[in-house]
Amino acid sequence: MLKSKEAFLKLFKINSRSKYYDPIFLSDTEFGFSVKRKYPKQISYRPPLKGSGEPDVVAVLWVVLDTKNASDEKILVTVRIAPVSLWTTKRLDLDERNLESPTKESIEASNKTRKPESLFYGEEFFYNIKTKILVDPKNKPISGVEILDKAFKEHCETAHRLKGAELRIKQSLRKTLDFVLTIFINTIKQILKKIFGCEITAEDTISEYYKGYQSIKTQQINPIEILGYKAAKSTIVIFSTLVVIFSVLAYLEIIKLNYLEYISDDNTLILAHVIFTLTAIEYLPRLIFILLNQLIKFRASITFIKINPFSYKKWLPIFIKIIVLAIAILLIEKYNNSIIGMISITRIENPT
């Protein structure tokens, strides 16, 4: 087991000749540090420039030995990388007189380019306790520099028009789904409050967004009696609305109410169906309440779902190989048919 943060940092060989610089030990973890690296000019992203001409936004990598997720053989090494402004980490307002402050013109120019996305690696790298080296999930040795380079390379690829397309598409889908779910959730909340007169409460604001509501209370103010059955005003209104809607549809011959015609001659059946419908309407808010919480939990799972931004690296080469193989088979088959056709013509022209 490593004895110090310095020993953990040595595994990554950060020195004056390294592309990574300014290592800082993290105070909130036993083994962890952060390092910086400037973005290369080859990528599409152009960071804002300081008054001195140096880039203000650099890639920062946070590397942590997660001792909480340790086995007898391996300890998880997590890596997070994100673009960070060196100026805004200290101040909010620009200062054109300070050479460390980014210029307004360079910020505007930078905003026109695609910034790399933040990435998190939580299951790709480990520290082998027995061999005292860094390894991948298959227990193959991997150097600290290779870990940093992999994270930095893929971080830069997220700004690429094609290589970063998968991540942008998945993020757009997640945002769209979150937006649609939020509309459904807000609509259901309004239905419970406005139509059914229910009061829903949550443990706190965070639970309201991620876990759902804790309780539902139906306010039965001035209940109305119908056919000897007392029900909330909202229940009677909903029941009457349904009766009117079905009556209009039947009158316009859009639907047929054969079943209702069947029970209409028996007052006992009519009363039983009215009471059953009113009871079902009164229990409907609880069913809607359950649906509401399930939608909230589903939205939370979508929010925290891990996105693999480079899954195409696994399936695309296989797909290309299949396409190439299929084309080769078609060409061989066509070539063979051509040869067979030529042989047949030769035999016809020169019979033995």
Highlighted features:
extended, 3 domains, two-stranded antiparallel ribbon, 9 helices, alpha+beta, 6-stranded antiparallel sheet, 352 residues
How would you explain this protein's 3D organization?
It is a single chain. The protein is α+β, with helices and mostly antiparallel strands. The protein contains 9 helices and 10 strands. It folds into 3 domains: 159 residues; 133 residues, no CATH class; 42 residues. Strand 9 and strand 10 form a beta hairpin.
Largest sheet: 6 strands, antiparallel
Helicity level, as a percent range?
Answer: 40-55%
The value of Rg in angstroms is 34 Å
Strand order, main sheet: write it out: 1-2-3-4-5-6
Strand content is 15-25%
Element-by-element helix/strand order: HEEEEHEEHHEHEEEHHHH
The overall number of domains is: 3
Shape: extended
For the secondary structure, the number of strands is 10
Which regions contain 5 or more consecutive residues with pLDDT less than 50?
A: none
Q: Averaging pLDDT over every residue, what do you get? A: 87
- Give the N-to-C terminal Cα separation: 86 Å
Number of helices: 9
Which class do the helix and strand fractions yield? alpha+beta
